[in-house]
Amino acid sequence: MKNAQPHTIYLKDYQAPDYLIDRTELLFDLKPNATLVTSRLLVRRNPDAVKDDEAGLPALWLDGIDLELLSIAVDGALLPAQRFREEAGGLSLTVDKPEFLLEIQTRIAPESNTSLEGLYLSNGMYCTQCEAEGFRKITFYPDRPDVMSVFTTTIVAPATYPVLLSNGNKVDSGTTEDGRLRVTWEDPFAKPSYLFALVAGDLQYVEDTFTTCSGRNVKLQLFTEARNIGKCAHAMTSLKRSMRWDEEVYGREYDLDIFMIVAVDHFNMGAMENKGLNIFNSACVLASPETATDTAFQRIEAIVAHEYFHNWSGNRVTCRDWFQLSLKEGFTVFRDAEFSADMNSRAVKRIEDVTLLRTAQFAEDAGPMSHPVRPDSYMEISNFYTLTIYEKGAEVVRMIHTILGAEAFRRGSDLYFERHDGCAVTCEDFVVAMEDANNADLKQFRRWYDQAGTPVLDVQDEYDAENATYTLTFHQHTPATPGQEEKLPLHIPVAVGLLGANGDALALDESDSKEKVFHLTEATQSFTLHGINERPLPSLLRGFSAPVKLRFDYSNTQLLFLMQHDTDAFNRWDACQRLALRTLEQLQTQYRAGDVLESPTALIDGFSAVLGHTELDPALVAKMLTLPSAQEMAEQGSEIDAEAIVAAREFVRSTIAGALKSRFLTRYHALDERKAYQPTAEDIAQRSLKNTCLAYLCNTGDEDALTLAQAQFERGENMTDVSAALAALVEYGAEGVAEERLASFYQQWQHDTQVVESWFGMQSSSASFGSLGRVRQLLSHPAFELKNPNKVRAVIGGFAMRNFKQFHREDGSGYEFLADQVIALDGLNPQIASRLVTPLTRWKKYRAREAEQIQGALKRIADSGELSPDLYEVVSKSLT
Ligand code: B3K
Ligand code: ZN
């Protein structure tokens, strides 16, 4: 396997920067193939650097990639050639002055930048993405987050780019002698280069204002291409709600006079929190009832909030180095999750987050890329924007919140923001602020930051009727992960409630509390509750109080009881999931043994009861009726048998659909109200259950059910209902019908990029429709572009990550297909290639035949030529 410079970076090697940049002035003269970037940097020796100045001042290192160096001057004089050296990845200068003005001119070619990192073009619009290390593709600079500078940016562009944006406030604008436009922006807040942004294009905007808690008026602007201007309202509402929430819940006020969001079609991830100028993937910001589903509406609300919240957790207080990434990401995900929970159904939000964690983060934790929330080494930082950093990181912050309590947590966050405002700090600083503000001890808790892997928690109980005591014994154990053989016991907060025989919550102590948090700190630990007058049924790990795999030997009857009576909505759902997973596992065993598959009677009883529960939140009911995905089933067992997973799941779904058909139909009709679309929590809940029922009904294959879907599709009331109906027709309808509906849908929506993206995804992820042949056809569809990550994620990602059945075809053709796509993409966009290879990385968990096929596909990628550092790291770690 070849790579230009496979190089591992270690946290233990961290050193403060030798030089600081007090001011950064940038001038961009924009041209697609020859953009001139002139920088003027006020450089100063860092007083806190590790000093060895006797032998003269150290060289100044500036990162730089794919830059054409035109000139360097120090204090106004050109720097002689012997004073600087261009090396792989940057530039080394010997200036021998502790303070100086450095001027550098470089040339870059945004048009040929397909990595979508640095400055690039999307649909003719210039935009940037600098996190983590994209700024070095713009100009030579100490591109590390602990170098914070005040930026002034001047943009010069032809009049065909009337909108010229950068961070901060607009301080000047005019026209150059040759008629081009010139705008200058100044950002008064010192920031690292990763938060720099520039946008230039022919854009329209919608505008609003927000009055902050101290009475300042902030201008809010959302920029997009003219055709999308009608799709901005929801993001704007979400932004204002986020701003208010952050004031109320965290006491955080916005700091600039303007906050801008720009939508771009070509973007490697969801969005980016650049100071005062957030750049968003169009799919994560643009929505209208006709074009976007409820899921998209909620995703937009969450991402707008997430990026906005970064203004404090990330921008005002930033990361010292990239090993600390979870400092801003874990905390901000926790903040946005709480915001979404406050805006919508708290239980459903938690269920969604935990599902993601169990399906994908647990898999990551058990795979070759497993790493702690604070990694100790990496080759390519882009590979570490992971579910572990984000989602497990958020769980770690949530546990601090649970351990300290809401008020104490707020005291901790206040101290953290106050103490570190304007600084680049570490995860340790965050924990220390939480401790200092509350006189708390989180010493053992810190292990969550260092230890990779998902802890397993085995629980036993014992009831002593004579003494009326109930004892829970916990045993914790974290499996070994690459490079970490030994694991120490963690501090695990376990929220527990007890149910009596009549379903009531039992009092756990004299103060009559119905829920308690046990603090596990040892490998094995028992807790005894007194005054328990009947044998209780425990409701464990309520609200998923820690990111662990909990094992307790519940009987089916006990799970059905919890589904009916638990006052913790999350655990009600979890009981249902446990029952479903257990049933599915038994069926896989029967399938492998060639036995007749047994009807899942307990699950049918449970679902039937849930369906009849009309006072339960319909969104929660919809979640309870949703079977674990094939991916989640794969994560559960010790060895993955793809065929058995698919067979068991299809059998359970169709058996339930058949057995409960009339109940699904009754609820469908009861929920199918005609009313104007609103993305409110209540209406979203109603639609989600209605469409869950519709999918089960269509799963029976009955004509009348498909007619119902057809009618819902034709009514075209909102995209949620239309796309749910279409998806059901595609999955369960006759092939001809599916093709026809897909074609008419495309006909109607071909002008709308976001709808076309979901149209692609619906096909490639369909178990019955998305065959490899069809997916190949989609790749040659005129609307497909390999250079557009959303389309790649929809078609190739939809197939490899969400179409378990077709991807794992016996002949291994799915794996070979993915390998081909990854190889092709690596030359264009390494970040996307390295993400897309994920389904191949867990090959060791599959049965021998699949394992060999997947490993073969990986080896083919490894031998395909020189890989990007991104792909090299993932492939090489997966093959060892
Ligand atoms: N901070 C960015 C992620 C940048 C990813 C760079 N490869 C978005 C976010 O988490 O808010
Ligand atoms: Zn983030």
Automatic annotation (TrEMBL):
<protein>
    <recommendedName>
        <fullName>Aminopeptidase N</fullName>
        <ecNumber>3.4.11.2</ecNumber>
    </recommendedName>
</protein>
<keyword id="KW-0031">Aminopeptidase</keyword>
<dbReference type="Pfam" id="PF01433">
    <property type="entry name" value="Peptidase_M1"/>
</dbReference>
<dbReference type="InterPro" id="IPR014782">
    <property type="entry name" value="Peptidase_M1_dom"/>
</dbReference>
<feature type="domain" description="Peptidase M1 alanyl aminopeptidase C-terminal">
    <location>
        <begin position="557"/>
        <end position="879"/>
    </location>
</feature>
<dbReference type="InterPro" id="IPR024601">
    <property type="entry name" value="Peptidase_M1_pepN_C"/>
</dbReference>
<keyword id="KW-0645">Protease</keyword>
<dbReference type="Pfam" id="PF17432">
    <property type="entry name" value="DUF3458_C"/>
</dbReference>
<dbReference type="InterPro" id="IPR037144">
    <property type="entry name" value="Peptidase_M1_pepN_C_sf"/>
</dbReference>
<feature type="domain" description="Aminopeptidase N-like N-terminal">
    <location>
        <begin position="103"/>
        <end position="195"/>
    </location>
</feature>
<dbReference type="InterPro" id="IPR038438">
    <property type="entry name" value="PepN_Ig-like_sf"/>
</dbReference>
<dbReference type="Pfam" id="PF11940">
    <property type="entry name" value="DUF3458"/>
</dbReference>
<dbReference type="InterPro" id="IPR045357">
    <property type="entry name" value="Aminopeptidase_N-like_N"/>
</dbReference>
<dbReference type="InterPro" id="IPR001930">
    <property type="entry name" value="Peptidase_M1"/>
</dbReference>
<feature type="domain" description="Peptidase M1 membrane alanine aminopeptidase">
    <location>
        <begin position="235"/>
        <end position="448"/>
    </location>
</feature>
<dbReference type="InterPro" id="IPR035414">
    <property type="entry name" value="Peptidase_M1_pepN_Ig-like"/>
</dbReference>
<comment type="similarity">
    <text>Belongs to the peptidase M1 family.</text>
</comment>
<keyword id="KW-0482">Metalloprotease</keyword>
<dbReference type="InterPro" id="IPR012779">
    <property type="entry name" value="Peptidase_M1_pepN"/>
</dbReference>
<keyword id="KW-0479">Metal-binding</keyword>
<dbReference type="InterPro" id="IPR027268">
    <property type="entry name" value="Peptidase_M4/M1_CTD_sf"/>
</dbReference>
<dbReference type="Pfam" id="PF17900">
    <property type="entry name" value="Peptidase_M1_N"/>
</dbReference>
<keyword id="KW-0378">Hydrolase</keyword>
<feature type="domain" description="Peptidase M1 alanyl aminopeptidase Ig-like fold">
    <location>
        <begin position="453"/>
        <end position="552"/>
    </location>
</feature>
<dbReference type="InterPro" id="IPR042097">
    <property type="entry name" value="Aminopeptidase_N-like_N_sf"/>
</dbReference>
<dbReference type="GO" id="GO:0004177">
    <property type="term" value="F:aminopeptidase activity"/>
</dbReference>
<keyword id="KW-0862">Zinc</keyword>
